[in-house]
Amino acid sequence: MQDGDFSFSNGTLKRDFELLTQAVNASISGIIITDNQQPDNPIIYCNEAFERITGYDRRDIIGHNCRFLQMDDRNQKEREILRNAVRNGEKCVVEIRNYRKNGELFWNELYMSPIQDEQGNVTYFIGVQNDITLRKKAEQELRQEKDKMEKRIEERTRLLKESEEYLASIVQTVRESLIVLDVDYNVISVNQHFLRTFKVSSEETEGKNMYQLGNGQWNIPRLKELLEKILPTNNPVIEFEVEHDFPHIGKKIMLLNAHRIELEGQFKDRILIAIEDITERRSIERRKDDFLSIASHELKTPLTTIKGYVSMLERLMPENAGEKFKGVVNKTSTYIDRLNNLIEELLDVSRIQTGNIELHKEAFDFDKMVRETVDGLQTANKSHRIVIKGKTTSNFVGDESHLVQVMSNLLSNAIKYSPERDEILVYLSLVSNYLKVSVTDYGMGISPEDQQKIFERFYRASDIQQRFPGMGIGLYICDQIIKNHGGSLWVESEKGKGSTFSFTLPVSERSAV
Predict the structure, then answer these.
(1) 388 and 343 together in one domain
(2) H-helix or E-strand containing 398?
(3) Which of 162, 213, 417, 468 is the most exposed place for a label (fewest CB within 10 A)?
(4) 325 and 229 in a common domain
(5) Backbone φ and ψ of 261, nearest 5°
(6) CA gap 186, 271 in Å, rounded
């Protein structure tokens, strides 16, 4: 073959590949590819339709096993069908309940097929999914309405009247500002808490357009965004934050929960809005953050001085000093280091809350960083054996010191919360264009309820509080560091069977080896 022929062939292959990629991304079906050669069969590719159907961004998808789409709905027989197909390297078709990132249920018709190499080994699986929620809903409605249409209309009419009476009683008794709007955003009713909080009368609100209340005080762009753009496509909307300076009552920070109530024959018949005034709470949080920042900085100076004196004692200690005296000095130095680390964590929290966290990004050997961090912890902890498997073989452009902090925290937690076991597993891999790190212990495990909150600031599970000391800020800091690198941190756990903390980091082309 002549050189020119090869160039033409190579160019043709490139155009064919680009055309194939464009075709896959243009598909209305969600398409994923998983790597059967890696533990837990992680997703290594997804097209744009998969992101659109599930509501997840690509960085939240790559590296996960497909089961994350079932959230806590794990007792579906289809999951066993999928597991058996993966185990046996077979294709299968299932209809399974999945959940979007916002928690919304959708039915997924999933076609899964294995991809084999030349030796017949299953190396990858390709999955094609279609959202069949509307079809499922139509089938269910058809079954229900075939012989019961007249009865349903009568029942709906009765329920409508009862619902309106019930709703009216709730609106007046709930200790939160509540507003009921019609489809044109006119106020049908408000409760007494709303009238007291915003210092208006029922005559000034009921029957008026929401945006015109108080001479236009409620003509708020964020409120319009909620009612006109977000609510019609995402019902309900939870904890939507709105900040506004009202002319008569001053600045308010509000959390809005909005729910569209669909009634017979109409798309949007009623809109219920609950308003929580969090102005004072935010003020208290800011004062608390200011206190933490000031207190941490103030403690830093005398602690540095004390550390200097203890270091001097260690250097000037007589050779004939007693073992008890040496032990006291050593323990003092150890506890000073612990206190210094605690203060540094509090300062990190303060920097994160104020948006002042600084990342000094440079290229470094990612695998070497992980090995050195593990070696340091292994030297200090003889009770557990830390095993590293896999590799990324990548240079990563990021803040190495902050990522060392993440690894140290995850490994220290794995050791702390698995006192009855003696092994910790660290697995490194390159998944698509993401680095993935997983730290697995075989200890206490974390309940599903605590998993939802474990990355929140100062949150600690109740059973952990009783057995282990701490402030509940380590995982919050780790989560924020990973997010500031454009990555994602998550946990998979089961009570009594251990936990796996994983994070992914995007790798640019210029940082790959």
Answers:
(1) no
(2) strand 395-398
(3) 162
(4) no
(5) -100, 115
(6) 10
Q: What does the DSSP 8-state code read for residue 303? A: H
SS3 106: strand
- From the number of C-beta atoms within 10 Å of its C-beta (0-12, 13-18, 19+), residue 313 rates as middle
Rounded Cα distance, 433 and 435, in Å: 7
Residues 422 and 487 both lie in one domain: yes
- pTM of the complete model: 0.52
Residues 6+ apart with CB under 8 A from 423: 384, 385, 386, 387, 442
Give residue 267's domain range. 171-277
Structure tokens at 129: 């999914």
In order along its 513 residues, the chain shows pLDDT tens digits of 444 444 445 666 667 767 877 878 888 899 999 999 999 999 999 999 999 999 999 999 999 999 999 999 989 999 999 999 999 999 999 999 999 999 999 999 999 999 999 999 999 999 999 999 999 888 888 877 777 777 777 777 777 777 777 766 765 666 788 888 888 899 988 888 888 888 888 888 888 898 888 778 888 999 999 998 888 888 888 889 888 888 878 888 889 999 888 766 554 578 888 888 888 877 776 766 666 655 555 565 676 677 777 777 777 777 777 778 777 777 787 777 667 666 666 666 666 665 557 778 899 999 999 999 999 888 878 888 999 999 987 789 998 988 998 998 899 889 988 888 889 999 999 998 999 999 999 988 888 888 888 888 767 666 665 555 556 678 888 898 899 899 999 999 988 889 999 999 998 744 443
- List CB contacts of 77: < 8 A, sequence separation 6 or more: none
Distance CA 32, CA 20 (A): 14
